[in-house]
Amino acid sequence: MHTVILKPKHALPFYARHPWVFNGAIDRVEGSPAPGDEVELVASTGQFIARGLYNAASKINVRLYSWDADQPLDAAFFRKKLEAAVRLRHDWLKLNAGPNPAYRVAFSEADGLSGLTVDRYGDYATVQFTALGLASRRAAFGEVLRELLGVKGVYVRTEKGIGQLEGLELHDGLLCGEMPPAEVVIEENGLRFAVNLTEGQKTGYYLDQRDNRAAVAKLAGGRRVLDAFSYSGGFGLYARRAGAAEVECVDASEPALNLARRNAELNGLDGVTFARNDVFGHLDQCVSAGRKFDVIVLDPPKFARNRAALPAAVQGYRKLHQQAFKLLERDGVLVTCCCTGLITPVMLEEIVAAAAAEARRDLQILERRGPAADHPVAASCRESAYLKCLISRVE
Asked: For residue 243, what are the domain limits?
C-alpha cells in the first residue's frame, strides 16, 4: 500500500471526513502510486486517517472514500456506496415511483463518491466522472448501475475542462447497454419534459430545481412571468400550467428554446412565448420598451469557476438584479437562483439587497431554498451545498 503523509497540523479536516487532500497539505508520498491507485492517508505522527485514490496531476492529490483501515477500495466497497445512494432515492424519497422517473442517483461528495455524478432519466442513466480514480473504474460502475436501476443503458457525459484538471482523457459516449434515443421523455410533478441525454446541458436536465419550480408556480396564477435563462422552459412551463396569464422564456441558445417549445407542446401549453436573445441585452430592451412583469425568474449558469473570476461574477449577478428591479411591478415576485458555489448564501443576499437599495425598492425574502432532496449536502463537505434560490417580494 502506498502511503501519503500529511504535514504537521494539517490532519484535522480529514479526521472530520473532508474528502479532498490538496497538494499543499502533503509532506511526502512513500511508494510510487500511479494515477488512480489506492493510497493510505496518515498524519505526520504516522496515525492512519483514511483510504483514498491518488492523482498527482490534479490539484486534489487524494480523494478520500473510506475511514476504515481494514476496508479496501475495491469493487464491493463502491457497490455498497451506490446501493446506499439508491436506497435514499428509492426507499426514502420514492423518486422511482411513477412512469418515466427522473432523479439524481448519486451526487459525488454528498454520497461519499467524490468525482461521480449519476442521473436517471426513465430507462437510461447518465454518468459524469470528475475524478480520474473513479473514471478508471467506469466499466464496473456502469454494470452496477444497470443492475441497481434496471435501466437499458448508461451514457457518459463529460464536463468541459475536466480533462486538463484531472489529467483525464474521457469523451462523451455509451458506457454500457443500449444507446439512448435522441429524445427521452420524463415526468416531473405531472409535467412531461423531453431530454436530450447526448447533447443537452450538464447530464441532460436540471433536476436540482424540481422543488423550486413547483414553489414558484404556486405564486404564478394570473401573473405575467419572465423566465430568464430558461433552458428547456422549466420555470416558465410550471408557471403556465399553474395559470400564469403570460409567460416569456428567454435564452441565448436556439436548441434550448426548441426543446422548450417541444416541452410546451408535450404538455398542451399555449400562451408561452420564446425569445432567443442574450439575457442581459433582452432585459435592457424590456426596460427601454417600458415592459413590466409580476414574476421574474433569474436562473443563470455558473458565472465563476475559480476565485479569479469571482469579482466579475458578482458584478454580473448585480447587473441582472438592477435590470430586474426596473421590470418588476409593485408587489412583484423575484426569484433569484445561483449555482456558483463560490458565491455563498450571505453574499447572494447582499448582492440582491444592494441592487434593491439602489433601485429604491423594498425587498422581503419569503423563502431561502436549495436543491431538491436528491441533491443532499455532505456535512463533512460543505462545498456540496452549491445551489441557492431566493424567493422575494418586491414592494
From this structure: 206-394
